[in-house]
Amino acid sequence: MQYLPNILFTIALVAGIGYFTLNIRKIIRNIKLGLAVDASDHTAQRWGNVVRIALGQSKMVVRPIPGLLHFFVYVGFIIINIEVLEIIIDGIFGTHRVLSTFLPTGLYNFLIGSFEILAFLVLVGVILFWTRRNIQKLRRFWANEMKGWPKNDANLILYFEMVLMVLFLTMNAADQSLQALGSPHYVQAGAYPISKFIVPFMSGLSEATLIAIERGAWWLHILGILVFLNYLYFSKHLHIILAFPNVYFGKVVPKGKFKNLQSVTNEVKMMMDPNIDPFAAPAEGTTETPAKFGASDVMDLNRIQLLNAYTCTECGRCTDECPANNTGKKLSPRKIMMDTRDRLEEIGKNINKNGEFKPDGKQLLDDYITREELWACTTCNACVQVCPVSIDPLSIIMDMRQYLVMEQSAAPMELNVAMTNIENNGAPWPYNQMDRLNWKNEN
Amino acid sequence: MSEALKVPTMAEYMAQGKQPEVLFWVGCAGSFDDRAKKITKAFVKLLHKANIDFAVLGTEESCTGDPAKRAGNEFLFQMQAMTNIEVLNGYGITKIVTACPHCFNTIKNEYPGLGGTYEIMHHTQFLKTLLNEGKLKVEGGKFKGKKITFHDPCYLGRANGEYEAPRNLLEKLEVELVEMKRNKRHGMCCGAGGAQMFKEPEPGNKDVNVLRTEQAMETSSEIIATGCPFCMVMMNDGVKAKNAEDNVQVLDVAEMIANAEDL
């Protein structure tokens, strides 16, 4: 029976990672529902962006306070994972602080010491994040789309992280006390610049109690990590993984450059070619259906746009800088991303249930994103510029406008007037093209 | 100022078998909007002053298609684009300057994919090169020491990363440049982009241009400088809405340089 903990641990580990992998595969399947897109260009620039924007957090620190706090949590998350490695080895093989037997004492002490300091900084960061959301009530965290689950999700993540850090420090404090008692399994190892302040609270506890605390904290910490890992799939917190590929696939051409639709180019070229036979029947064997213009549902979006939706962590910087949102319009770029993900998830569940997508009478347009939101956008790119993980909400708005105008002829009336003018006289206003140079003779 | 400006057209150049150094793409606003026409004329005067050999398309110019594209009408956009590209390529145009960031962005970024590749500059970039090359000289004149704020046009700034050219010109005018809280990368739109210029705004609690004008007025500048005919309309309307016409002027950077030179 002495191997029972090892076996239980291994089962928990395999189950945790296995379920997570299963869900990641669902995400990949859902993203692949989108249109394929070629992103094999600008490789050097893309990697540069990953280093600068994703690893280097260059867009987070534009706002110094949350930028710094996020930096603590981010570095803490990455570095403390080295400790998780040790925990996993210990768990499987029943060792204790196994790295201390491999690494030089100085290095091991330095590592454990820095984990503690980082854990403390993470704790501080997370607590301040919580106060910004719940006490300070920053506007961007209390927008309409943040009611209900998104709000609870955000707080749950913070509670998770608080508990994990407290468990980590408690475990270390109990370990130190046991080392001081000379408890057999507890090797003399590590430096504990933070948890040493917890040790006095444990004075006078028996060895058995201390072992119970240490083991309890150890188990809860690693199980908590596994639960948290699996929580990601259901949460906006997926960004801790997806931010990296998302930044890689982010826009690398000038922000003002909107893609030209190839299907339209083909049609326009045909129209302008005097040699083409307008009555020609399609070539033998072509069964191709004409391309749909624009997007009315998530399958009409491309895979990068769908990855964007899963990556969004709902920080709301986009909405905070959106001129339409700033002036009380319904448009919120963050809501565009949240709606896209919600609809994609709905389709994913439909596929899980039916084996393939069974039309459910719903779509992204109107059932999630209203026309009023789409028409309020000034295409100013403020949302794209400010997103710390290179999400492009504007491209989704544009694709949906294309659907409205080219598939449904449903532009606002004044825009139809402007477009008719462009068609008839080459300007959005009803002036004659022949008067275009009159200004030179006017005073 | 009764004598007409000398503005040669490409057709005239062609007839003489000549090719201008640069094509001035005037744009719809610059051709038809009364306020924007003043910018067009100011820029033409500067081109003459610097002895630039330029021409316009005149009646052969047509909308670039920008508002159609941003409204979602890709079809109309590409029709406009390909027609314009045929005209431009027919004349063998290689270099274009425009005073409209929307035309600038469309020709720079969206025309190449449809067969129209040109070297294109926004007029503030062009004026900056003229100053650097010594073809044009500018001194502070009447703007020296005046408090001025610059409103970044989205399609010049964020869309194409040009924040410095207009500011360099203002520096040459020796103004006291006061930045708004939201400037450059974080500059706020005037509310005209994405074809909003041609429609009523959606319901909200304020118009975008009024909010942006308020931000500009917080700097207590006498002049709001900009580099876009649409921003010009929006900011002017904003100033009117705030009943501040007597205290705040909206000027294009090109107009300021022409005024400083008393052209």
Automatic annotation (TrEMBL), chain A:
Lineage: Bacteria, Pseudomonadati, Bacteroidota, Flavobacteriia, Flavobacteriales
Source species: Aequorivita aurantiaca
InterPro entries, sorted: 4Fe4S_Fe-S-bd, 4Fe4S_Fe_S_CS, HdrC_iron-sulfur_subunit, Helical_ferredxn, NarG-like_sf
Pfam family, one: Fer4_9
Domain called 4Fe-4S ferredoxin-type: residue spans: 302-334, 367-399
Chain segments annotated as transmembrane: 6-24, 68-89, 109-130, 156-174, 216-234
Record keywords, A-Z: 4Fe-4S, Iron, Iron-sulfur, Membrane, Metal-binding, Oxidoreductase, Transmembrane, Transmembrane helix
Entry protein name: (Fe-S)-binding protein
Domain of life: Bacteria
Gene3D superfamilies: Alpha-helical ferredoxin, Transmembrane di-heme cytochromes, Chain C
PROSITE patterns referenced in this protein's UniProt entry, alphabetically: 4FE4S_FER_1, 4FE4S_FER_2
Automatic annotation (TrEMBL), chain B:
Highest rank taxon of the organism: Bacteria
Keywords: 4Fe-4S, Iron, Iron-sulfur, Metal-binding, Oxidoreductase
Residue span(s) of domain Cysteine-rich: 22-108, 148-235
Annotated InterPro entries: Cys_rich_dom, HdrC_iron-sulfur_subunit
Keyword Hydrolase: no
PANTHER family (UniProt xref): IRON-SULFUR-BINDING OXIDOREDUCTASE FADF-RELATED, IRON-SULFUR-BINDING OXIDOREDUCTASE FADF-RELATED-RELATED
Protein name: (Fe-S)-binding protein
Source species: Aequorivita aurantiaca
